[in-house]
Amino acid sequence: MMSFSHNDAAQIQGSLPSLNALRAFAVAGRHLSFTRAAEALEASQAAISLRLKRLETRLGRRLLERTPRLVQLTPDGAALLTEARHVLAAHDAALAALEAKPQRPLVLGISDQAVGAQLPGLLARLRGRLPGLRLEVRIGLSRDLSEAFDGGKIDAAILHHVGKTVPRGAELLLRDRLGWFAAPGFEWRAGEALPLLALAAPCTVRASAIKALDAAKIRWSESFTGGGVGALTAAVAAGLGVAVLGRRARLPGMMEWTKKQRLPELSETTILLQSRVSDPVLSRALREITSAIRADS
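The structure corresponding to this sequence follows.
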């Protein structure tokens, strides 16, 4: 197996026409998926494949083994992945240092259901990648955040929308689906009403869950009303009942009950972006945020 040193990585960086190929490799190598790499980099799968092919041709080494069902790092690919991250981090840090700092913060609204448990890690990574960014985050229901955006109170909003359609003026980031989730040891005894854990009205996810239960003629009782997804997931972990969440908002270890307990299938959802940002530095920061959300899907 060939090895890569920091000097090798520097030579690679200098020899490439751009860092697009190296970034495509780093993202595809992290997720072991061309589909997720394409979503994270806002490119087509064909473009990702072409960038990787050019990189492998230039290096004369096979970096990823691909089959219709599996993507795996080769030994050379695994060796390069660490060095590629160093190169890309140095590149991004240099750009951040050279760019002018924005005169005002980026005021961003984020729906709890859109990001959920991934929010702390997302914000921590952004702070590391964009140290000069002044970011003000508002967490709330999508309806409230959309109204705040329309009223000019926030610069951009990442929203969770129940349904397949993409509202006018919004950008589609991801598609998701609601599901029923409970703690591994939770039991719902026959004949009992389903103990429902939900956000407070007028949450559209809550309304969608209640509508589905009523249509399926399943008795339910409200066991917990949380102010946010953090409180809701804590109630799930405590075994208080069954919560309706977007699949990307769930915590590791939660069990999905949709099929196991014959609960009704729930709506598809979309993660959307509304933005009026025009400042180039703030625009780049917003793209970093949306790319990170796509990459974590």
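The longest strand covers residues 171-182.
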